[in-house]
Amino acid sequence: MNLSNLPALSVLSDNITIVEKDGVKLVRVIHDKATAAISLHGGHVVSFKPTDQEDLIWMSQQANFDGKAALRGGVPVCWPWFGRVAAPAHGFARSSQWRIVEHRESENGVIVSLGLEPNEETLAIWPHQFEARLNVEISEELVITLDVKNTDNKAWLFSGALHTYLNVGDIHKTVTTGMGPEYIDGLQDAKVCQGKPSLVLTDSIDRVYTQPEENILVKDEVLNRTITVHNKGHNSAVLWNPWVEGAASMGDMQDDGYLTMLCVESTLHAPSIETGKELSPGESHQLVTRISAQA
């Protein structure tokens, strides 16, 4: 996603400016190691481009930057739940307005921290007190950490995901390994299935892999690189691609969008709100995804 031509609304530092796209403010990072952009709407990373590489993050050409709908593509923050276990789907974080908490930079890269706290809208959806921080580290690799803390006087349950859309040259020539053998198939009424060690897509996929390895590798034969996805704080990894019919049914995805994307998500999965992870008052949990590419 090219945001280099957008004029700066404000300058935060030598490497960080605030720009605006269709009414949505974004934190734009331009550093010797990489360029990146983070939407304050949704706390949503929309680009990460290491120097001399193609963007590792896929964004829909028809993503709706109206400041209301969740953005299609990038890295949506699904919290305080993942999936359609409650309304809105994937929680409210991905469509809430986040604020800049701090930013730091050095010759090694840039760190941007965003914050989200309860407000009238969140409390109407989910009546709990919390503090959420999204820490985005930008260098030769991208590290996103969702740090959530229970600031309430009682425990609450949650799930979540960093719903990363990876940018690939051609999904037909993309081989994924490391996702593990067992998965819950969302296209077969949550049937538990056993998969093969490597995966090349020929149709839509919506799977929760329950035993992912330390690193999930996405080998891209067209862009001649292997993307490594290293997750922490998760209990599963979700792989998703809507394929032909799914892409055509989405108003915010171009019909051929499925050809150049694959979601590989750091996920704290729960089939319902009641089976989510419990966090006691004062406790925190970090969900992390680390993304890099090698030729």
Automatic annotation (TrEMBL):
Gene3D superfamilies: 2.70.98.10. InterPro entries: Aldose_1/G6P_1-epimerase, G6P_1-epimerase, Gal_mutarotase_sf_dom, GH-type_carb-bd. The keyword Ribonucleoprotein does not apply. Belongs to the glucose-6-phosphate 1-epimerase family. It comes from the Bacteria. The keyword Ion transport does not apply. It comes from Vibrio gallaecicus. Pfam families: Aldose_epim. It catalyses: alpha-D-glucose 6-phosphate = beta-D-glucose 6-phosphate. Keywords: Isomerase. GO terms for molecular function: isomerase activity. Its EC number is 5.1.3.15. This is Putative glucose-6-phosphate 1-epimerase.
